[in-house]
């Protein structure tokens, strides 16, 4: 068994899958969570809808005896739509998965990490929050919640040596952005400090550092990959 | 589970948690409040006690769900005193025998 184990949510998505593969290469044990685990994942997976608190609790109960070091809350959904034309059910689901899912997983992981007196919680926000991106109001609202939760929860977990941070990348080539016209992505990238589209490994390099002991004095922060 | 065993566990856990803090260790007994006026634990210490009790209950084949709204808001909250918490723990059904 690896000395340090991480849980990655949204394991079936492009970001989650990449982070899992890279974390395993670095020697971390990995358990991935997603609603319907695909068969081709290299790590252990548990079926879990992160928006369902009871499912999240059951999953983390099964991880009581692994040397948990961190959770990476990469599960997320978006709906590129104006708020005035977004169905309420879609708004609700966006908040449930992005915000409540992060909160449920963080709280359950927090209990295990508090017992171990150390660890890392890494949440995912988006450049869309800092830019107040039009056409993504519900997504921005949920991710802004994630950033606020990260700041407050970092203080709650500090006494146990657990850091809590958020990563907010610019647009990444995943399913989430697959239907966004390239011209829109290009315009978004032009608003970053570093004017090229984030690669999946750019995200991993940030997550890797946050997982590492070297980041022990960084907590409650939101790191913008690509700069904003 | 016997109430005396649970009380002994809670007592030992509180002393261990308090021993991590500087200063004199207060006397605690069954009537000692856990929360509010006269309480001996900070909110972070209470979490540590709950985590310890969660493990204790798991080892004894019980499920201790300590974050229900009713646990914190009810007038008869089990968190009122060490004794009421012990009674609540003893009342938890054995897993597989819940109603």
Describe this structure in words.
Chain A: This is 3-oxoacyl-(Acyl-carrier-protein) reductase. The complex is a heterodimer of chains A (228) and B (99). Chain A is an alpha/beta fold. Chain A has helices spanning 14-25, 53-61, 88-116, 127-131, 137-157, 175-178, 182-190, 200-211, and strands at residues 5-9, 29-34, 44-47, 68-73, 119-124, 162-169, 222-225. The longest helix of chain A is centred in the middle third of the chain and has 29 residues, at 88-116. Chain A is globular. The model of chain A has no long low-confidence stretch (mean pLDDT 96). By secondary structure, chain B is mainly alpha-helical. In chain B, helix 1 (3-19) packs across helix 2 (43-59) and helix 1 (3-19) crosses helix 4. The radius of gyration of chain B is 13 Å and the shape is globular. The model of chain B has no long low-confidence stretch (mean pLDDT 86). Chains A and B meet through helix 3 of A and helix 2 of B.
Write out key terms for the chains shown.
heterodimer; A: 228 residues; alpha/beta; Rossmann fold; seven-stranded parallel β-sheet; 8 helices; 17% strand; globular; B: 99 residues; mainly alpha; Non-ribosomal Peptide Synthetase Peptidyl Carrier Protein, Chain A; 4 helices; oxidoreductase activity, acting on the CH-OH group of donors, NAD or NADP as acceptor (chain A); oxidoreductase (chain A); KR_dom (chain A)
Distance between the termini of chain B: 18 Å
Largest interface: A-B, 5 and 7 residues
Overall average residue pLDDT of chain B? 86
Unreliable runs of chain B: none
Could you give me the name of the CATH homologous superfamily of chain A?
NAD(P)-binding Rossmann-like Domain
Helix content of chain A: 40-55%
Total E-strand runs of chain A: 7
CATH architecture of chain A: 3-Layer(aba) Sandwich
Overall body shape of chain B: globular
Count structural domains of chain A: 1
CATH topology of chain B: Non-ribosomal Peptide Synthetase Peptidyl Carrier Protein, Chain A
| Helix/strand/pairing category of chain B | mainly alpha
How many helices of chain A in DSSP terms? 8
Strand order, biggest sheet of chain A?
3-2-1-4-5-6-7
């Amino acid at each position: 068994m690896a000395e340090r184990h991480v849980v990655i949510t949204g394991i079936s998505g492009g970001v989650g899958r990449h982070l899992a593969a890279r974390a395993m290469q670095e020697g971390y044990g990995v358990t991935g969570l997603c609603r319907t685990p695909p068969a081709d994942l290299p790590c252990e997976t548990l079926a879990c809808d992160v928006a369902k608190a009871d499912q999240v609790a059951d999953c983390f109960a099964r991880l009581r005896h692994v040397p948990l070091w961190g959770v990476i809350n990469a599960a997320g959904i978006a709906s590129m739509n104006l708020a005035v034309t977004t169905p309420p059910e879609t708004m609700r689901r966006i908040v449930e998965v992005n915000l409540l899912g992060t909160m449920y997983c963080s709280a359950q992981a927090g209990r295990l990490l508090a017992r171990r007196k150390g660890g890392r919680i890494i949440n995912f926000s988006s450049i869309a929050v800092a830019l107040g991106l039009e056409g993504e109001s519900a997504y921005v609202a949920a991710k802004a919640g994630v950033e606020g939760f990260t700041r407050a929860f970092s203080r709650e977990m500090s006494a146990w040596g657990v850091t809590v941070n958020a990563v907010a990348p610019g647009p990444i080539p995943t399913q989430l952005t697959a239907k966004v016209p390239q011209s829109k992505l290009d315009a978004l990238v032009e608003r970053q400090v570093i004017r090229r589209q984030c690669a999946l490994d750019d995200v991993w390099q940030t997550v890797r550092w946050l997982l590492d002991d070297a980041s022990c004095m960084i907590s409650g922060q939101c790191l913008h990959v690509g700069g904003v | 589970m016997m109430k005396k065993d649970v009380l002994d566990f809670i007592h030992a856990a509180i002393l261990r948690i308090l021993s991590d803090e500087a200063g004199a260790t207060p006397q605690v007994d069954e009537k000692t409040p856990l929360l509010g006026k006269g309480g001996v634990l900070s909110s972070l210490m209470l979490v540590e006690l709950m985590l310890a009790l969660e493990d204790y209950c798991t080892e004894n084949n019980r499920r201790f769900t300590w974050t229900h709204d009713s646990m914190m808001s009810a007038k008869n909250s089990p968190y009122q005193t060490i004794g009421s918490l012990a009674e609540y723990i003893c009342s938890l059904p054995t897993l597989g025998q819940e109603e």
